[in-house]
Amino acid sequence: MAEKINMPQSGGGLVRYFDDYKSKIEFKPILVVIAIVVVILFELYLHNFKPLG
Length: 53
Description:
Layout: H1 29-48
């Protein structure tokens, strides 16, 4: 009988770093959406109502 040879798995060396990292600054998703809307409205305001100068 032939001897069985175990080969290493192809994904054995991959490391998932995002599981170990926890940010100290976190935002609720609704705050991000509100900030984006505010920036869009501000850009529209500047585009349509250019200050005199």
